[in-house]
Amino acid sequence: xxxxxxxxxxxxxxxxxxxxxxxxxxxxxxxxxxxxxxxxxxxxxxxxxxxxxxxxxxxxxxxxxxxxxxxxxxxxxxxxxxxxxxxxxxxxxxxxxxxxxxxxxxxxxxxxxxxxxxxxxxxxxxxxxxxxxxxxxxxxxxxxxxxxxxxxxxxxxxxxxxxxxxxxxxxxxxxxxxxxxxxxxxxxxxxxxxxxxxxxxxxxxxxxxxxxxxxxxxxxxxxxxxxxxxxxxxxxxxxxxxxxxxxxxxxxxxxxxxxxxxxxxxxxxxx
Length: 271
Fold this sequence. Notes:
Elements: E1 5-14, H1 31-43, E2 50-51, E3 60-71, H2 76-86, E4 91-99, E5 111-119, E6 134-135, H3 142-150, E7 154-157, E8 172-183, E9 187-194, H4 201-213, H5 222-227, E10 246-252
Parallel strand pairs: 3-10, 5-6
Antiparallel strand pairs: 1-3, 1-4, 2-3, 5-9, 5-10, 7-8, 8-9
């Protein structure tokens, strides 16, 4: 990033149904690819867009965060208008703001929050709902689901709830919030916040808790699964919940400093 460029933080919404996840993949439509194509179109040069997390194929977002460096004459308002004018309808930039050049959306994040929708009512199968939930269309024992969710809070070993891990960082995650709440008359929403998430971790958690809420397994299974490391026990999780019900809803960062010099002075009018 040169001295004549400004880094912008973008907060994004997207419908992941038509995308093969966040990360650029040759020959496949991805959210990162759509954003980089839009940025290249409006700036006249290829520019890398970096995201806070790599959502899987079919997963949505209402709070994904990304960053991009743009020529210094751009303002946040201009960038917001230009991107939303050329992006596909499945992607929308909610906000754009100038940030210090050192801002890293992935590594600076303190925590991330996800929400998973489970449709228990018959109407969840409607084409106006089913793309954005798991249309289970069956009642759940929400007391049992709540007991299962309570075991997730705190620091645990989540190896059992991950498709692939990060051996260099281990599988320990610190969960600060995990609870079910009503989703209007359509079903229930599971919300979880943690300092980090493993690959498909939320979907494995939801799939297992839904089996608990359907009476297919005991809520007591959660504790040994959270304590299990590879090879410790034959106990396994339930299959992961479908991707369509999962949303990345927020990424939390440290409070900004008052270092006015960290953002180009040409952007003094940015709100």
